[in-house]
Design brief:
2 domains; eight-stranded mixed beta sheet; alpha/beta; 266 residues; Rossmann fold; 9 helices
Length: 266
């Protein structure tokens, strides 16, 4: 079995390294010369030119997605899917690990591959702060465009890669999971930020209040640090908020974080 990892950044490189350590044939592709160099330094054959990439049995998409004017920009996934499509058939498995919104994987399956490939969505869960306990092999969800795709994906991830999976009833369900997880985390942090500002107004020690609250079995108030940073939480919160008019809490959380950042400067 040969596996090609598309996108060798924060998620793709650890994924390729994990597969390599399983003694499987793995190689990667990225449009960044630096990313290709880093992969090669880790012993992963990597390519900058698409026409040099060997054909594979399994393709794993780990390219980044973005926001453009507060709307999801998923063009990198569609672009790389178009490249892959000329090399795949019914026997190939395409796994999209990149963060997407519901409907993306099925659209790619129908419009780009015309149903001529097995497609699953297995959203990544990876924390570089603890790659042992929260790395590539932590429990994840999986959804497929059809039963055949789902069975093939489960066989690959569970039997070959030893990654525990929770099966969803549809690929759209698995697609919304990742952005929901990060948006939920975003709102948790925003609550902590607002509570800290309230405590300061009342001349109370936020950390003491937080720890006192957390003695309750179903309460876990997070720390309030320097604002909600990184790319994933803000991006995925916007992804989820863009899907429906029922986004009051999400938009309010973003407003709280902005207010909190200004408050820290005082």
């Amino acid at each position: 079995m040969s596996i090609c990892v598309l996108g060798l950044g924060h998620i793709g490189l650890p994924t390729a390294t994990y597969i390599r350590d399983k003694h499987l044939k793995v190689f990667g592709y990225d449009i960044s010369r630096q990313a290709v160099r880093r992969a090669e330094e880790q012993g992963i054959p990597a390519f900058l030119e698409w026409n040099e990439v060997p054909e594979a049995d399994v393709y794993i998409i780990c390219v980044s997605t973005w926001n453009a004017n507060r709307e999801p920009d998923l063009s990198p996934i569609f672009d790389i899917s178009k490249k892959i499509s000329s090399r795949t058939g019914k026997d190939n498995l395409l796994s999209i690990e990149s963060t997407v919104v519901p409907g993306t994987s099925r659209k790619i399956y129908n419009s780009i591959f015309q149903g001529n490939v097995k497609v699953v969505h297995v959203p990544h869960r990876y924390w570089s702060g603890d790659p042992i306990n929260h790395g590539v092999s932590q429990p994840r969800v999986i959804g497929g465009v059809n039963r055949e795709s789902l069975d093939s994906g489960k066989k690959f991830y569970q039997n070959v890669l030893d990654i525990p999976l929770s099966e969803t009833s549809s690929i759209e369900t698995s697609e919304i999971c990742k952005i929901s997880e990060n948006a939920y985390r975003y709102t948790q942090i925003a609550f902590a930020e607002e509570l800290r500002m309230i405590c300061e107004d009342l001349a109370l020690d936020f950390e003491e209040v937080r720890k006192a609250c957390n003695t309750k079995w179903n309460t876990e108030i997070l720390e309030a640090r320097d604002g909600i940073g990184g790319t994933c939480l803000p991006k995925d919160m916007c992804h989820l908020a863009s899907l429906s008019k029922h986004n009051t809490l999400l938009i309010a959380s973003e407003s709280v974080d902005k207010q909190y950042r200004e408050w820290l400067k005082k």
